[in-house]
Structures are given as C-alpha cells and as structure tokens.
Amino acid sequence: MEFSLAAADCSRLRTYRCKGSGIVASNIVLILIDDLGWPHLSCYGSEYYESPAIDAVALEGCRFTDFYAAGAVCSPTRASIQSGQYQVRHGITDFIPGHPHPFAKLTVPKVSGELPLEVETLAEALKRQGYTSGYFGKWHLGGVEFEPDKQGYNESIVTKGRHFGFQTSPPKTIDEATYLADYLTDQTVDFIKRNRNQPFFVQLSHFAVHIPLEAKEETIAYFKGKSKPEDMVAHPTYAAMVKHVDESVARVTATLRELNLHENTLLVITSDNGGLRRSANGGAEVSENTPLRNEKGSLYEGGIRVPLIVRWPQVIPSGAVCAEPVISVDFWPTFFEVAGGDLQSVNHPVDGVSLQPVFKDPHANLGREAIFFHYPHYHHSTPASAVRAGDWKLLEFLEDGHIELYNLNDDSSEINNLAENQVEVANRLKRQLADWRDEIGAAMPTPNPNYKPEQAEVIVRPNRLKPRVNRQ
Questions:
Q1: DSSP code, position 108
Q2: Is the Cβ–Cβ distance between 268 and 356 less than 8 Å?
Q3: CB proximity list for 347: less than 8 A, separation 6 or greater
Q4: What is the pLDDT of residues 384-395, one digit of tens each?
Q5: Which DSSP string corresponds to 440-465?
Q6: Helices and strands, number each (H, E), in the chain
Q7: DSSP label at 299?
Q8: CB 119: neighbour CB atoms within 10 A?
Q9: Do residues 149 and 253 both lie within one domain?
C-alpha cells in the first residue's frame, strides 16, 4: 500500500496498522447538509442563525471562503462527490427527475435517473484501501437498485419523505415523532462506535435544512422570540433546522472525542447547493444568501458557493481560513489520498484535485486553471454554464448566448458586469468554457418547437395531473 502523506505527517497522527503493516492515516467523516446557504452559519457572519458546534470545528480547523458545490441543486453535487467527476459525465445535470418546463424557450437535456453502477464511488475506492464505509440519509442518485449498498457501502440507510414521519430503505419501524436529523445522527454515531477499531468512512447526509420547514416546537419558539436584522429574510423554523443540524455535528464530534478518535479523523462539513429563498412553486420565504446573489437553482454565487469547514488535527492549522477556489469534485481524490491511495493508479477520469496542499498550508495555490459549472435547466434562473478562473467568473446564458463577467475579489455580489469592459478576459473564459463542455461531452439544450412565451414558466411534473406555475 502506498501513501501520499509524507512520513512526517503520518508520524503526527494516531494511526491504524493494517494487514501487511500498512498505515492508514485517518478515518473520514463527511457531513452533507441539504440546501444550507453560504451565510447561514455564525462562522460565516450570521447574527441570527446559531451554529456553535460547527463554529467550534472551524476554530479547530479551516473555514473555506470560496468552496463550490458542483451543482446548483442536490443530485448533481451528490454525483460529483461520489464519483470525483463533473456530473455532466453521467447526465445528472439536474435533481432527479427534474421538473420539465414544456413551453419554455429551450428543450433541456434529459436527466439521468441514477448514478451508474460502473462508476467507482468513494466507498468502492476506499474499500480498496481497507476502509469500512457507511452512508446514512438522503441519497437522491437512483432507486433501490442504485442505492449505497449497491455502490460499495458496507452499511446504509437511505431516507426520504419529511422530517417527521419519514421513510427508510431498507424499511425500518420508526416512531412518527422521531426527528429525521436525530435519527440519522443516531445511526452515524452507532456506526462510528462499532467501527472504532478499524479505518472507516461515513457520510451523514442530512435532509435538513431542505423544505418542508419542520423542526421541534421548542426550538421554533426560541427563534420566534429572537430578534433579527429588520431587512433579513429568515424563517424561525428554518433557523431551528439549522440549529438541529448543528446539534447533530455536536453529537458526532463528542463521539469522536469520547472514543479517542478526534485526532485521527478528517471531519468535513458542507452543503450540496446554495440556500433556498422560496420554492419555485411559491410558498413561504425561507432564507436569503446576501451578500451573494440569487439562490439554489442558479449559477450565481448564491446558488453554488456554500460553506466548507474541515478539521484534521495536527495536519490542518487551527483557526485557518482558505480563499483558494475549490469544488465538491475534489472530495474524491482528497479522501482517496488521505486513505493512502495513489491517484496515479486510478484508471478512470478524476476531475477533482487533492486538497491536501491547502489542508497543510491554507495559503497554498492548487495550480488549477479553472473550475466549471453546467446547469442546462430551468429553475431559479435560465439554463447556463459558468467558469471561475482566479478572481474572474464568467456566466453564459444558453437561451440567448449573452455573457456576464465578474471579478469576485472586488464584487462577490455579482453586481457589476464587466463583459463589455474586459473583452479579452471575457472572450478567453468563454472559449475555455466552450472547450471544457466539448471535452467533457456536456449535453446542451436545444430550441423548443413548442415554445409559448406566455406559458414559459409552467412546470409539469410527470406524477401530477395538473401543471403548476413557477411563481418566482
């Protein structure tokens, strides 16, 4: 077994001895929160939401300011995490199954219904390194035949439905008063305890803070009584859900300490896409992503830039802040290297890069030219692609081909479109984006012969008899 960590780094960690005297550097815990926006944690500046446990992890590790979900909605990002590849390779470019706009200007690409079994998932890659893997929570990458237990995970419970009265696969008998975030944390803590004496990877995949808005009454009451900035969109039930996932993090971190696994565990906390302001079908305002622009379902920063907090004692310096642009496709190669894997031995495309250089030195440069996004669907915006290269970000909107260019160092709110002032930069990034789409085989929308401007925002779900209108 080969290891990419230097010997000096390994010697500072509590390590496992494996067969053949190989050393595994660390356990890995990934906590994926659903729809958590970039400004929705105290450590990212919130004065209303409360996240003391996550804030504590940030103080002990590194907070990333420029981390991106590969997708503007859940399934694409989840596919990127499991595969280490841009989700366009699998055709999972929207949440599964998506919501068709039959009268919109463009006919969008068909969304693949599952993550192909031939993709080498994180669990399958880590199994080669001697790891036991568990997955608990939302999957959204295919039905029963494509769930985690078919994708290399030794143990899994997939959940869906609501936050109270949820369903599981495989089926479990659960009291309807049980809160989903608590149940998933129970499963994760139990998995950690049972696998404490061997290297493990576990993904705790919360459904919170996704709608429907559901939380414990006492926590809702607390936030109803808490003052907030007058102009801030912040629903007390949503705030309670943020607190509940923070309580989950507190339980996981406490378990790692109790079992003396704290020093020997890479802990990663992030979100699958930006925060939701309001459902595409109307309803209550949930939150906002100010100062970032727009929300989930958009390639503006509010849709794809999300929190990332990473703790790995004695490797990551405490209280670090990293501004290097990184993306969810980077988890696969990072975790594989942390487990002692050699990326040179991988015989399939890996689009991400290992984050170990910025773990060790948060000011390091990964040497990557650009990161890319492709969301050829209608949601809280129109079909678009985007590229970020250094401080520059270009968006190309696919209905009419118009482009927008922003310098994110000066304008993270994406207010000042510089496309006409920085023509050379804009043209260079537009070519780079087009070349990437061609190289990776990105499916593109096509003109819709049934286009009806007056009905362009009508949404038709396959399982619904009547169309619903997008009220955004």
A1: P
A2: no
A3: none
A4: 999 999 999 999
A5: HT----EE-TT--GGGTTEE--TT-S
A6: 11, 21
A7: S
A8: 19
A9: yes
Q: Which residue has the higher pLDDT, 1 or 383?
A: 383
Do residues 106 and 144 both lie within one domain?
yes
With 0-12 / 13-18 / 19 or more C-beta atoms within 10 angstroms meaning exposed / middle / buried, residue 102 is middle
pTM of the model: 0.92
Cβ neighbours of residue 121 closer than 8 Å, sequence gap 6 or more: 82, 83, 115, 151, 152, 153
User: Average pLDDT for residues 110-122, to the nearest whole number?
Assistant: 96
Residue-wise pLDDT tens digits, 400-419: 999 999 999 999 999 999 99
Phi first, then psi, for residue 54 (nearest 5°) are -70, -40
- Based on the domain organization, do 355 and 385 belong to the same domain? no
Structure-token pair, residue 355: 């984050």
Q: Is residue 237 domain-shared with residue 325, that is, in the same domain? A: yes
Closest CA to 265 of 60, 123, 50: 60
Q: What are phi and psi of 223, to 5 degrees?
A: -75, -25
**Identity (one letter) of the amino acid at 210?**
H
Q: How would DSSP label each residue in 162-207?
A: -SBS-EEES-----TT-BHHHHHHHHHHHHHHHTTTS-EEEEEE--
For residues 313, 317, 320, 322, the Cα torsion angle rounded to the nearest 10 degrees is -90
- Has residue 453 got a pLDDT over 70? yes
Residues 99 and 242 occupy one common structural domain: yes
In a domain, 162, yes or no: yes
| Predicted local distance difference test score (pLDDT) of residue 10 | 34
Task: Please say whether the dihedral angle defined by the alpha carbons of residues 68, 77, 80 and 319, taken in this order, is positive or negative.
Answer: positive
Q: State how far the alpha carbon of 74 is from the alpha carbons of 17, 117, 255, 275, 304, in Å.
A: 37, 19, 28, 11, 11
> Residue 467's CB: how many other CB atoms inside 10 A?
14
For 62, the token pair is 């590194």
In a domain, 12, yes or no: no
Residues counted in the chain: 472
Number of domains in the chain: 2
Do strands 326-327 and 67-68 pair parallel, antiparallel, or not at all (unpaired)?
parallel
User: For 315-331, how does the pLDDT look when each residue is reduced to its tens digit (9 = 90+)?
Assistant: 999 999 999 999 999 99
What digits encode the pLDDT tens for the residues 41-83? 999 999 999 999 999 999 999 999 999 999 999 999 999 999 9
What residue numbers bound the domain in which 122 lies?
A: 25-369
Smallest CA-to-CA distance from 355 within 341, 365, 340 is with 365
At 436, the amino acid letter reads W
Three-class DSSP category at 437:
helix
Which of 78, 136, 138 minimizes the C-alpha distance to 112? 78
Query: With contact defined as beta carbons under 8 Å apart, do 30 and 45 qualify?
Result: no
**Residue where one domain finishes, among candidates 323, 350, 369:** 369
